[in-house]
Amino acid sequence: MDLSSLTDLALSALVAAQSGATAAITDVATKLGKAGVEKVCALVKDRFAKDGEGATKALATLENNPTDAVAQKAVRRRLEGLLDEDRDFAADIKAVIGTVSIDKSQHQTATAGDNSTVIQIQGSGKTVG
Description:
The chain has one domain. The chain is built from 5 helices and 2 strands; from the N terminus they run αααααββ. The protein has helices at 3-19, 26-51, 53-64, 69-85, 87-97, and strands spanning 108-111, 117-120. A two-stranded antiparallel sheet has the order 1-2.
């Protein structure tokens, strides 16, 4: 699992736990389960506490307003840095998350003036037949 996906999953677990908004992150929360979400949160909180006051403040801001995009971005940056620097921390998060994946594909459908459907496909190696 790459660093970006690991960060996304850990952040999703944090937001789900703090906001109770598992509907927004149903895929991750369902696959991890309540115990998995709580374990990821505990690991992140412990690691952020070791990182210092700036990290704990960023996490507290996210906990107080889990839907705030700025707070999520701040925690994401710090979390990604810690996962990159601390291989043991990354391994602990990976052990809990396992092989959970997030669908990051983009799908768009539009209708042209003559009611014909216009579909945009993004990625490499795609064939339309």
